[in-house]
Inverse folding.
């Protein structure tokens, strides 16, 4: 069987919401209503508890075959090189910091942006980015050894960890869902449903999970060159808005139509945790995770909302899983 032998990059989107300059910008462009709605501009959307270090460390541990890691930020630098040199002194993957101004070149009127949907619509514009790349949120990490074929098949297909889902169900849920502070909620499923609708798919879409996303730069280049108005519409919102669409979903639907996308079950590889009110829930989940050493993807969502004890338990588990000998310096 052939192996994948072309360069593959990683792209991580990251922000430190506690940075005083970033806070000042959010206050300038946002309002109290937005800041009180978690799915639009709540503080948890910008919280950083060192997840970026775990993410980068896990790539070095479990995907050393990566060509380069790009971290997309807003006038910030997480200093991951210093961390990697301390904790993984052996040869590691090169890292480059890319500012929003770089990927929004020609679209500067939409900056600053505090909107992950908008940012992910533009990451394919990173200068020097390889044709094949994998996109991560900073709360994603790898939890077991991977190979390029986990993301791209030898016959040229992109691997998508997702499945078909009903657009009708999403629309019905939208009609009955409670609107907080007079605002429609911005849901993950709806952004994917909006993308499918944009492509004329009204019955179903591919539901994506909290896993790394394998992507092709050329697909975005071609689609947005033909539909520049769709790009501008999506990046025009500085904060998340219910009308926006998931750009990755656009790519997967296009590729599936062309026979270049392979769907795989996410839950066969995904360790997902969002802290609940009871610490026993977290402990139980981590025991389950420990029983699945071969699962390759992890997402530890909204760690800032966990108690200090939960944060300690979770981070200690992560450090053991990715083989860090010493604690992260936060």
């Amino acid at each position: 069987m052939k192996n994948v032998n072309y360069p593959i990059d990683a792209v991580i989107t990251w922000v430190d919401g506690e940075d005083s300059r970033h806070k000042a910008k959010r206050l300038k462009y946002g309002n109290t209503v937005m800041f009180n709605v978690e799915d639009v501009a709540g503080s948890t959307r910008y919280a950083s508890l060192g997840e970026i270090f775990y993410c980068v460390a896990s790539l070095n541990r479990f995907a050393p075959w990566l060509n380069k890691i790009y971290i997309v930020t807003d006038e910030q630098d997480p200093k991951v090189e210093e961390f990697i040199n301390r904790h993984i002194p052996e040869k590691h993957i090169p890292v480059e910091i890319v500012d929003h101004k770089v990927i929004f070149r020609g679209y500067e009127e939409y900056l600053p942006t505090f909107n992950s949907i908008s940012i992910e619509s533009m990451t394919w514009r990173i200068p020097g980015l390889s044709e094949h790349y994998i996109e991560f949120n900073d709360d994603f990490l790898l939890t077991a050894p991977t190979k390029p074929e986990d993301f791209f098949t030898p016959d040229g297909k992109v691997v998508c960890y997702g499945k078909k889902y009903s657009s009708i169900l999403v629309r019905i849920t939208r009609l009955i869902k409670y609107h907080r502070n007079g605002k429609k909620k911005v849901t993950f499923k709806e952004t994917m449903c909006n993308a499918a609708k944009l492509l004329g798919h009204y019955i179903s879409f591919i539901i994506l999970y909290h896993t790394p996303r394998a992507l092709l730069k050329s697909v975005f280049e071609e689609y947005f060159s033909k539909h520049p108005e769709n790009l501008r519409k999506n990046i025009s919102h500085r904060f998340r808005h219910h009308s926006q669409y998931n750009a990755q979903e656009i790519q997967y639907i296009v590729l599936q139509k062309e026979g270049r996308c392979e769907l795989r079950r996410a839950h066969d590889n995904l360790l997902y945790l969002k802290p609940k009110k009871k610490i026993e829930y977290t402990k139980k989940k981590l025991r389950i995770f420990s029983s699945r050493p071969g699962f390759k993807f992890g997402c530890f969502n909204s760690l800032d909302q966990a108690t200090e004890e939960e944060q300690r338990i979770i981070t200690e588990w992560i450090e053991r899983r990715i083989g860090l000998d010493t604690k992260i310096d936060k």
Notes: Residues 40-47 have pLDDT under 50 and may be disordered.
